[in-house]
Design goal:
CATH topology: Spore Coat Polysaccharide Biosynthesis Protein SpsA, Chain A
Number of domains: 1
CATH architecture: Alpha-Beta Complex
Helix content: 40-55%
CATH superfamily: Spore Coat Polysaccharide Biosynthesis Protein SpsA, Chain A
Radius of gyration: 17 Å
Strand content: 15-25%
Number of helices: 8
Largest sheet: 5 strands, mixed
Number of strands: 8
Order of helices and strands: EHEEHEEHEHEHHEHH
CATH class: Alpha Beta
């Protein structure tokens, strides 16, 4: 049975990592795959599978994710990064999660492609640990949710410069929306670790996560308290 879901893929200016991803997503036979390009990206995107719907938005991941959600008409939304890669196991597990129709946000097991340092297996392990123990999956883990959940959170906060996915998870926690681990991998590029150095990049990500967690948790708890009153 075809899963009743739209897959939304935001792409930054000049980013063409989605060229390998789109055929993999089309194989899922979902309602639609929506590629959201930036308005100021004037370069030729090249061949795009005819099954993929293309829309445009102002540049910015939160802006583009929300734009894709507005175009979508399906009751389920799956937000996938342009440099992600999926397998048949990923797509099958996605369908099972959607069929269960839980009021929850699903996330996948993060794995890295072989385009970076071998030490990135530690980062994948850390992402799984962070998600399972701290309840903080990030966008590169393929956030999957019912539209009713997305709408109840008012989508991604477009005022957030970075970490819009992290902020959404804190908002979900403030609203009592549970998380659900989807038992399948989603792969992401490790090229940033190769370009910037594994240790330096890992340390920067840890510092950014800590800073964002303090800010987002405080802001969302304050907002939830204000709404309750």
């Amino acid at each position: 049975m075809q899963p009743d879901v739209d897959i939304i893929v935001p792409a930054g200016p000049g980013d063409r990592a989605w060229r390998e991803l789109l055929p993999q997503l089309v194989a899922a036979r979902v309602n639609r795959v929506i590629l959201v390009l930036a308005d100021d990206d004037l370069s030729d995107p090249g061949d795009i599978p005819p099954e993929v719907q293309v829309c445009r938005s102002k540049a910015g991941r939160a802006l583009q994710l929300n734009a894709g959600a507005r175009v979508s008409e399906s009751p389920w939304l799956w937000f996938v990064h342009a440099d992600s890669r999926v397998t048949p196991a990923t797509l099958g597990a996605m369908q099972h999660f959607v069929d269960a129709d839980a009021t929850a946000i699903g996330y996948f097991r993060l794995r890295f492609l072989a385009d970076g340092p071998r030490w990135t297996f530690l980062n994948a392990w850390g992402a799984d640990l962070r998600s399972r123990l701290l309840g903080l999956p990030f966008g590169d883990q393929g956030l999957l949710m019912p539209r009713r959940v997305f709408d109840s959170l008012n989508g991604f906060d477009e005022s957030v410069v970075a970490g819009e996915d992290h902020n959404l998870i804190w908002a979900a926690r403030a609203h009592g929306i549970p998380l659900g681990a989807v038992p399948a991998p989603i792969y992401t590029s490790a090229r940033k670790y190769a370009e910037r150095g594994w240790w330096r990049t890992t340390w920067q990500h840890l510092g950014m996560t800590r800073t964002q967690a303090r800010s987002f948790s405080r802001n969302n708890n304050r907002r939830d308290t204000a709404e309750a009153s």
